[in-house]
DNA sequence: CGCGACGTTGATTTGCCTCAACGATTGTGG
DNA sequence: CCACAATCGTTGAGGCAAATCAACGTCGCG
């Protein structure tokens, strides 16, 4: 199984023995998702959290008017789920959809809860991962309430440099919180 | 020491023995902050995370133009810090200021890191706390990019019902991302 | 090849901001 | 404890950033 990426991620924050790795590995399921297909969809249950091995995913919310609002992207080496649904085991409010043909490792809520008991270090790993994601969201809130769309795009561009070409423009517009039309005009202005 | 509130918070997610509680307690410092005074200020170092015993605090960011943008409030039983500064031990970018005369328990980064080793359950507690805060921020991002100011206020009102009278109106305006003037007009419209 | 999604451009509208002025509160020093 | 200053909330006029609606060319895909 090609989970090299996953061990690299763990090893940034904790040390695992060979047995622990094997135990974790035995709880993971590899899954392939074709471009455009859903991993989670609103109204369903989000039983799993997902580690991206290759390809990419988008997590988004569809509002009452049918408009989509992107909450996060996930590329190789990132975790993605509808965390609220995952931790409460309630109905999902987000959709998670493949942007490209994608391979993920699925880890179910039940398995993870047992693993926490068997490998306490996992608590540490996910604490740190979540704290970092929290900080990123905090910065995004600040940008959204204090910056113009143009500056928000500049900031997006900085953070997603190496992935930007893989993302359709209208999804970037949604992520920074503007319409595709406005985004198009804005980008034209920046090209100079 | 009156840390009843703190043990209640811990006991929602983990079980601690008497010795563990005493160990934790020995690492905490009680501190009193007068209304208007700062617990953390931008440019300083955020060595501590703070648990509010009584009173309230605001965390905010001051932008290049000198405008304040509120990222969070904290009332009795909540934790607050500049998490980015706390986990990286770099210079703070937020201010944390007392809204009222306030009592907090301070826990330093160094002490917490040691405590994680002594009481692995603490990793679990902070993992869960952080995941919940992450979910709250996720919802706030979605509201900010998809809802009108009026709906954002309605949502704020729901979540902060019992605290709202303790918060000056211009801080609520800042939290939901509008000017005090616009907030005033908006509120007038809602009163019917 | 043909259809539907995507990006662009134009015209118009609107939600929210800016600047300015003023009364009401709050707080503070004498 | 009062007087004055500072801060807060309100209101008005005008302006701008971004949304909306509509039309059209292009491209990827079945």
CATH classification class of the domain at 4-120 in chain A: Mainly Beta
Q: Report the span from N to C terminus of chain A.
A: 47 Å
What fraction of the residues of chain A are assigned to beta strands by DSSP?
A: 15-25%
Structural class category of chain A: alpha+beta
Oligomer: homodimer
CATH superfamily of the domain at 4-120 in chain A: Jelly Rolls
Q: Fill in the CATH topology of the domain at 4-120 in chain A.
A: Jelly Rolls
Give the overall pLDDT of chain A as a whole number: 94
Beta strand count of chain A: 8
- Count of helix runs of chain A: 8
Gross CATH architecture of the domain at 4-120 in chain A: Sandwich
Name the biggest interface: A-B, 33 and 31 residues
Largest sheet features of chain A = 4 strands, antiparallel
SSE string of chain A, helix = H, strand = E? HHEEEEEEHEEHHHHH
What is the CA-based Rg of chain A, rounded? 18 Å
The dominant shape of chain A is globular
Which strand order spans the largest sheet of chain A, edge to edge or round the barrel?
A: 1-8-3-6
Ordered list of secondary-structure elements with their pairings:
The structure is a homodimer of 192-residue chains.
Chain A: H1 4-11, H2 18-27, E1 28-33, E2 38-40, E3 48-54, E4 57-62, E5 68-74, E6 79-80, H3 83-88, E7 95-98, E8 102-108, H4 109-118, H5 121-146, H6 149-160, H7 169-176, H8 180-190
Antiparallel strand pairs in A: 1-8, 2-7, 3-6, 3-8, 4-5, 4-7
Helix pairs in contact in A: 7-8
Chain A binds a DNA duplex (30 and 30 nucleotides) through residues 148-149, 168-170, 178-186, 188.
